[in-house]
């Protein structure tokens, strides 16, 4: 699931921001996440 992927990424030092539940084509409603990067603060 996207939640498990976010947990793995956060454990590896990445920062993730929850987008909340959204409809995903072919999957239904899923809680999705943005993966934050050092470049996000510069935009």
TrEMBL record:
The keyword Lyase appears for this protein: yes
GO MF annotation terms: lyase activity
Guanylate cyclase domain residues: 2-36
UniProtKB keywords: Lyase
InterPro entries referenced in this protein's UniProt entry, alphabetically: A/G_cyclase, Nucleotide_cyclase
Domain of life: Eukaryota
Keyword Lyase: yes
Coiled coil (UniProt feature): none
A Pfam family annotated for this UniProt entry: Guanylate_cyc
Protein name from the UniProt record: Guanylate cyclase domain-containing protein
Species, as recorded: Culex pipiens pipiens (Northern house mosquito)
